[in-house]
Amino acid sequence: MAWNNNIDEGHADGEEPLHFYYNRQERLKNAPESVRDYYNGKLTGQSHGLFKSLVATKGNRMLLVTVVLCAFLVIFLSLFGNKSDRREINGVAVQLSAFTFDDSVYVSLHMDAGKSHKADTVKKVIATVSGIDSDKQKTQDHVLQGNYTGNEQYLRTKFTDYDIIKIMAEVEIAGQKHVLFAFVQQH
User: Rounded to an integer, what distance in angstroms lies between the CA atom of residue 173 and that of residue 90?
Assistant: First the structure.
């Protein structure tokens, strides 16, 4: 871009013009080669890829490794972590679920069909199901009983208190006991 040095500005009519001591050519003589090339238009922009910019400095590398480790940890725990509503009790896969409908809370204790269960074996199932309200207090207790024969089976109950937000079930199958928790799904 060419500048017209003959322009008379920077002063009022009848006054002396201001003198600027800035001279680009003089300043660029003492500048590094890369700065001179940039102002002359010879310097081309360096094209860095996304990965190169992520590993360019030690801090960036540490941040990248941290993000990748956190992502793997979240994925691993979501796939293989213990769920509080599922458990294998004495060889039986058990799942607790609860949902609301018409001011009532419906609770199901689902026992999967056993793959290695002997056909003539019957396991006694006792479940004490409790509703927990928003103050973390037990509201009601229901005792469910059944016999597990190796087939898919459900034990169900209904709570009439719609303030229940969580269900706790103490499940005992053939002498082995575990506690399951499930949040009430709002429908």
Answer: 6
